[in-house]
Amino acid sequence: MKIGFIGLGIMGKPMVKNFLKEQNTVLVNDVNKDTELEMVKEGAQAVSITEMAQEVDYLFLSLPNGAIVKSVLYSGQESILNQPQVNVKSVIDTSSLTPNESLEISKVLEEKSVSYIDAPVSGGEPLAITGELSIMVGCNENDYEDIKKVCEPIAQSVIRVGEVGSGSVVKLANQIIVNTNIAALSEAVVLAKKFNIDLEAMYQAIKGGLAESTVMDAKFPKMIAEDYQPGGTLNINLKDLKNVTSTADTVGLTLPVSNQVKEIYKSEVAQGNGLNDHSGIIKYFENINNMKVTKC
């Protein structure tokens, strides 16, 4: 089985490494040729789009947005579907798109007898590294068991949530939960700091109760250490929140909390901090309250 992978960013690189650990043949392509070379040193093969279209059975994508996904697959001059020979069986798209984008892409690929699986992931870089991502799969029921097996090296959970587009909906729901949690955690930390509470003691006290969460465990230490090295950037999460609110608008839903959190993220990105981890949203709350939250 040959696996193709396009998009070797924060999430793509560790996923490729985990496929390689399982002795898979992995062909890679990225606009950043230094990143390609890094993966070649790990055992991958850097190839052209033409070779990718001809040689791989399963093509994984990990790309920033829907426009780039479409360009890579069919709208770009050198896209996969514009190659003289296309042997790709399934495109497994781990990018975070809107449901409408996923459906549009699926229809185009279906005309070329290529299955499109919307398979956004959750867990960030740490779980991408350990191969323990959660994948929310939108696909034809007949494709599911095959896709589940292919994804085993990169995920601890591969759950089909419905037909194509459903994975994107569930990822949007996931991003609401994650990003509102981070914003709420930021407010809680600022409140505690204002009253000179020992933040580590606060964390340990809360940890055993209902407020304990994976988000808190992952992001609280980064907040108080001012460690904004990204697992998931503010830019990417703002994009996801925009997808949440635009998708809600298309079906007449009002999501006041998501809209408010989106505006907070937008404000922090406007300060030039878009490449920070989204735990860095605490800087917004520090700034509006004219205070600092650190261990020192």
From TrEMBL:
Residues covered by the 3-hydroxyisobutyrate dehydrogenase-like NAD-binding domain: 165-284
Its EC number(s): 1.1.1.44
Gene Ontology BP, a term: organic acid catabolic process
Catalytic function, reaction form: 6-phospho-D-gluconate + NADP(+) = D-ribulose 5-phosphate + CO2 + NADPH
Keyword check for Nucleotide-binding: no
Gene3D superfamilies per UniProt: N-(1-d-carboxylethyl)-l-norvaline Dehydrogenase, domain 2, NAD(P)-binding Rossmann-like Domain
Domain 6-phosphogluconate dehydrogenase NADP-binding intervals: 2-162
InterPro entries: 3-OH-isobutyrate_DH-rel_CS, 6-PGluconate_DH-like_C_sf, 6PGD_dom2, 6PGDH_NADP-bd, HIBADH-like_NADP-bd, HIBADH-related, NAD(P)-bd_dom_sf
SUPFAM superfamilies reported in the protein's UniProt record: 6-phosphogluconate dehydrogenase C-terminal domain-like, NAD(P)-binding Rossmann-fold domains
Keyword Translocase carried by entry: no
Pfam families, per the entry: NAD_binding_11, NAD_binding_2
UniProt entry keywords in alphabetical sequence: NAD, Oxidoreductase
Active site residues according to the UniProt entry: K171
GO terms for MF: NAD binding; NADP binding; phosphogluconate dehydrogenase (decarboxylating) activity
Family, per entry: Belongs to the HIBADH-related family.
UniProt name for this protein: 6-phosphogluconate dehydrogenase, decarboxylating
Encoding gene per record: garR
